[in-house]
Predict the structure.
Amino acid sequence: MIGIKYFKADSSTYVIKSSNGKIREQGKGLSFFYNTATASISAIPMSVQEAPFIFKLPTSDFQEVAVQGQIAYRIVQPETIAEMLNFNVNENGAYISEDPMKLNDRVVRSLQSIVQARVQAASLRDALVLSQSLVEIVKSGLAGKSSLTAMGITIVDVSIANITPSLETSRALEAEVREAILKEADDAIYARRKFAVEQERTIKEAELQTELIVQEKEQEIEESRIENERAILRGTNETERERLDAEIEKEKRRKEFVLLSVENEKQQADSEAYAIGTRMKAFTELPVENLKAMALVNMEPEQLMAMAFESLAQNAGKIGELNIAPDMFGKMVRKAVAK
């Protein structure tokens, strides 16, 4: 039929069919035939919409930063937004107005005002680290945003991908950070060298302490050795003194022995002298003839002959002539040789 078309929406699209200024049918995922001459159809997407954004904003210290991210939102009141914006589609299903295309811009502009206020209140260094806190600020600000609530829009999620400075500022910051990193590296090298010097000093002190302990031990050993030598010397001296005392005692006893021996010999000599004197006294008192007789008692024949010859010699003047036989001398010689 001329002017009759068939419309079919997916399950995520809310459809409002109007005719002669009145809503004839509405709901999600509807399908129906309609007269293009008298009916109008609004197709409102109910799925989550994502709108990327990038803002170039100045900081409190007049440095420009770029804030890049994405916002996700969803239409929860399609009837309300359909009254405020034109979501009508033609017979081919295309929007006849630019309002649906500008919805992302409306949501992003609402977000931009919140981000701009926060970034402009922060310095460059603070702004560069605002990502996570800025997300919470945006979510809180958009939750009470009347313009979005009035259109029946709710915010699902907000993400800040990055916050970057301008190229010149970025290079300056990189240079500053690079210098800081180099300084940290120099500080680390200095700290490492300082630590190495301290360790070397500690090791040297330990070595000196060890040498001192060794010297003290050597001194103790030397003192102990000297003390031992002194003890040995004292023992040797004591032993020598005891030996000398023993020798002295021995000599004293020997002296006493010699004196006693001399005394004994003296007494024995006195006894012998007394005995000889007594015999001599007795011999002097005896007549000569008696002494001679006593002497002749124990004499040998040869001694007797010798005394006889001695007597003959003494009385040679009185003897006129004396004949002695050779046999007598021969016997005496042979007897002497035999002895």
